[in-house]
Every structure is written in C-alpha cells, then in structure tokens.
Design goal:
Bound molecules: zinc ion
Number of strands: 12
Helix content: under 10%
Structural class: mainly beta
Number of helices: 2
CATH class of the largest domain: Mainly Beta
Length: 176
C-alpha cells in the first residue's frame, strides 16, 4: 500500500467504488440508473451508471487536474454537481455521494458552492415556465449581474420541470 501511494505522482488510474445515496434532507431523487460522471479541467474523464443499489465503479487516470467534479444526470434530472474533490486518499477509494449533494452553509447561513467552496456567487434557483414580469427590463437585470438569468438575487432556471438542484454558482456555472 505504501509503495502504491509512493507512486501517486505517476499517472496511475484511480478506481472508485462509489455509493450514491439519497440526501436525508432532500429525498426526492432516486439513486438507481443514474449516470455519474467525473469532470476534470472541463473534460469528462469517465462515466458510470448506478445499479439498483445506487452503487457504481468508475475508473480514470488523473493528470494535473486542479479538481475532480462529480456530476449526476438521469431521467428527469438535470445535470447536478454532487461533489468536488482535489485528492483521492488511495488508488482505489471507496466514496459515498449524496443526491442532491450535502449542502454546506457559511456561519451567516449562505449556501457554499461545492466546487469553489465560496458562497458569494451562489443563487437560489427558481423553477418557472414563465419569465418574471421584470425580465425584459434590461436595467433591472443588467445592473445587478452580467448573467441575465439572475434577477434580484435569484437564478431563473427557465424550465417547467422542477429540478432537484436548488442552488446555482455563477462562478463555476454549476447547479447543485
Ligand atoms: Zn462555485
């Protein structure tokens, strides 16, 4: 084991035994038949599908990626970021993920983005099939943020399907 860890700087593949579980605070999502994929440096490194227990195995070879971002998608589920890690504890880690991911908050109660670990660009998602009345008021939209979907501190997902993501980070352009 020590020997293996000593060679971590060589690009050895990482094989993750993953378990996808329901977030106890938000049990709306299901865990079987979900596509899990890992992105590093904006590239999809590997993909897997969970079995009927929510388990999956995913293998990829890390290079110099700054972080490894785990996303889920599936029938009726928009692409959602569930976790972001910078290192793996071994070449064959066993990892538990939650869908939606466990959301952490700052001491002031603001939700923290799982990728940048900051709260300043995080907006609550509003699911709406319509656009708010003041959406076409360019002054209101643009004065506050360059992203026209962010209005009065909320992110308009613009879909009639209610997604399981509740927050959006405008720095990383991810929903979680
Ligand atoms: Zn972020």
């Amino acid at each position: 084991m020590t020997l293996l860890l000593g060679f971590r700087h060589l690009t050895l593949p990482v094989t993750i035994t993953g378990h996808l579980k329901k977030n106890p605070a938000d049990t709306f999502a299901y865990t079987n038949g979900i596509i899990v994929f890992v992105k590093g440096g904006n590239k999809v490194l590997a993909k897997a599908v969970t079995d009927n227990k929510g388990d999956f195995i995913i293998t990829f070879t890390p290079k110099k990626e700054k972080s490894f971002d785990f996303y889920c998608t599936g029938l009726g589920i928009d692409t959602i970021l569930i976790s972001s890690v910078t290192v793996f504890e071994s070449d064959t880690p066993e990892m538990t993920f939650y869908i939606p991911g466990i959301r952490k908050k700052t001491t002031l109660g603001k939700t923290i983005c799982p990728k940048c670990k900051r709260a300043d660009k995080v907006y609550k998602i509003v699911y709406s099939d319509g656009i708010p009345d003041h959406f076409d008021d360019d002054k209101t939209a643009n004065k506050q943020n360059s992203n026209p979907k962010i209005i009065d501190g909320e992110y308009y997902a613009g879909t009639c399907i209610v997604g399981i993501a509740k927050y959006y980070c405008d720095r990383d352009k991810v929903e979680f």
